[in-house]
Amino acid sequence: MSEKPIRVLVAKPGLDGHDRGAKVIAQALRDAGMEVIYTGLRQTPDQIVGAALQEDVDVVALSCLSGAHLHLFPAVVEGLQKQNAGDILVLGGGIIPDEDIPELKEKGIVEIFTPGTNTKAVINYIKEKVGKA
C-alpha cells in the first residue's frame, strides 16, 4: 500500500497575468509524484484559501510577479489560519525583492523561491517540510 502523495495547490493571486513560472513549477512537482492543482490566473486570497480547503492540500505555492506579494501572500496565510488550516505550508515565488523576504517569512510564508531556483530545490524542500522525503 503506497503512501498518500503530497498535494500542492499552485496559485496566482492578484492581477498578475504571467504564469509561465507557475506552470513550470506545477509540472516539476507533478513529475516528482505530487498531486498538483493549479488555480489559474487572477485569484483572490479568499478563492485560494477556498480551493486549498476544498482540495485538502498539504502545500499552497503562491507565485507573484506584479509586486503585490506583501499584501497578497500574507492574506492567504491569514485566511488559512481563520479556517483552522494554519498547518498548510505556504510557499512564495516570483519576482520578490530580497528586502521583502524577511517580512514575508515573519507573516507566515515559510520559504520564498526567486527566479533561477532549481526545481529540484523546491521539490526537496516540500518533501522535507511535509515529512515525506
TrEMBL record:
What NCBIfam families would the database entry show? acid_CoA_mut_C
Organism listed in the record: Desulfoscipio geothermicus DSM 3669
Please list the residue ranges annotated as the B12-binding domain. 5-133
- PANTHER family for this protein: COENZYME B12-DEPENDENT MUTASE, METHYLMALONYL-COA MUTASE, MITOCHONDRIAL-RELATED
Q: Which Pfam families match?
A: B12-binding (PF02310)
Look up the record and name the cofactor or cofactors this protein needs: adenosylcob(III)alamin
Q: Which InterPro entries match?
A: Acid_CoA_mut_C (IPR006159), Cobalamin-bd (IPR006158), Cobalamin-bd_sf (IPR036724)
GO MF annotations, alphabetized: cobalamin binding; isomerase activity; metal ion binding
What keywords are annotated for this sequence in UniProt? Cobalamin, Cobalt, Isomerase, Metal-binding
Which protein, by its recorded name, is this? Methylmalonyl-CoA mutase, C-terminal domain
Where does the source fall among the domains of life?
Answer: Bacteria
